[in-house]
Write a structure and sequence with these properties.
8 strands; eight-stranded antiparallel beta sheet; about 325 residues
């Protein structure tokens, strides 16, 4: 008997074209590019506070917010890759975080991370599974996803949603909310004093609406800002009404705590120390969600009234001088 040696086939190593074909098939069944943009945007938000660049807006709470939002965007991108069925819920939350990063972090990673996050969120929200022919190769038949009916609706909404959200952030909010008028008998100054501070750091900040406070010369339209507490550095307040002496109240630091409410006719300062904005009752660019890590520098405000459970001042001074 003649015995012949037959070699058994070994494991087949996929070639480069086969690997590319498999990756292409995997990519087409999920919002791959949307997830990639979210991952890149989150990575950019992470890199900015961890880099040695000295021009960073803040390395404190702003840096922590950048790390948190950056990680959340990366996780959202991975969800779009490995759980595409939840793409709309994930994309909507990623869009809100991307817009929120502008104020909560270093201007959204100097706009780069925010822009990548918004673009990836819109693409992920509007993505629909690609259609496959019914007579395709084995493994790509009835079990493969088909194009959803009415796919143009989600795509159109994805294009409009970021614009609407950004417009909501920048739209004047004078008519968004009307706070209840004060009726406790306390009258504000007819001409609000001017307050200046180098740093204004609120805690639990919220916009309560626009109202009117009584003064000796009639009601005064003001915006109402509430917070749990607030810290002010280099506080200076100067009266602006009355015909006699001008009073100037100053303190190195001023700490307000417990049901703090500010009634302001004007408020201007530099958000996160970089982006300078002005708020007023008639044109108030207040976003629907106020980030918890916001602070302002070089603040100037016209303060009609302020209420707080506790006010602690360090090195309080009071000066009076005749008006010129």
């Amino acid at each position: 008997m003649l015995l012949t040696r037959r070699s058994l086939p070994g494991p087949r190593v996929p070639s480069w074209p086969d690997a590319r074909r498999a990756f292409r098939g995997w990519r087409r069944t999920r919002p791959f590019w949307a997830g990639l943009l979210l991952v890149l945007g989150g990575a950019e938000l992470l890199v900015v506070p961890l880099s040695p660049v000295t021009v960073l807006v803040s390395l404190g709470l702003g840096g922590l917010a950048a790390i948190g939002i950056g990680l959340a965007l990366i996780v959202a991108g991975l969800f779009l890759w490995y759980a595409p069925a939840a793409r709309r819920y994930v994309s909507l939350n990623a869009l809100i975080l991307s817009v929120l990063s502008f104020a909560a972090t270093n201007l959204g990673g100097f706009l780069v991370g925010m822009a990548l996050g918004i673009a990836g969120s819109a693409m992920g929200f509007g993505w629909t599974p690609s259609a496959r022919p019914s007579g395709g190769p084995a493994g790509e038949g009835s079990g493969a996803p088909s194009r959803e009916s009415g796919g143009g609706g989600p795509k159109a909404l994805a294009a409009v949603l970021p614009v609407v959200l950004l417009a909501t952030v920048g739209t004047p909010a004078a008519h968004r909310a009307e706070a209840a008028p004060r009726d406790d008998g306390v009258r504000a100054a007819a001409v609000p004093p001017t307050v200046r501070t180098t740093l204004f750091a609120p805690h639990g900040f919220a916009f309560a609406g626009v109202t009117r406070v009584p003064t000796a010369h009639g009601p005064l339209k003001v915006m109402v800002l509430t917070m749990r507490a607030a810290s002010l550095a280099d506080y200076r307040m100067t009266t602006r009404d009355g015909g006699g002496a001008e009073l100037a109240l100053g303190a190195d630091t001023l700490e307000l705590s417990g049901r703090v409410t500010l009634y302001l006719t004007r408020f201007s300062g530099c958000l996160e120390g970089l982006l300078c904005v002005t708020f007023s009752p008639d044109g108030l660019p207040v976003p629907p969600v106020v980030p918890p890590f916001v602070f302002m520098t070089d603040v100037t405000a016209e303060q009609a009234l302020v209420t707080s459970d506790l006010i602690v001042a360090d090195r309080l001074t009071l000066d009076a001088r005749e008006r010129s």
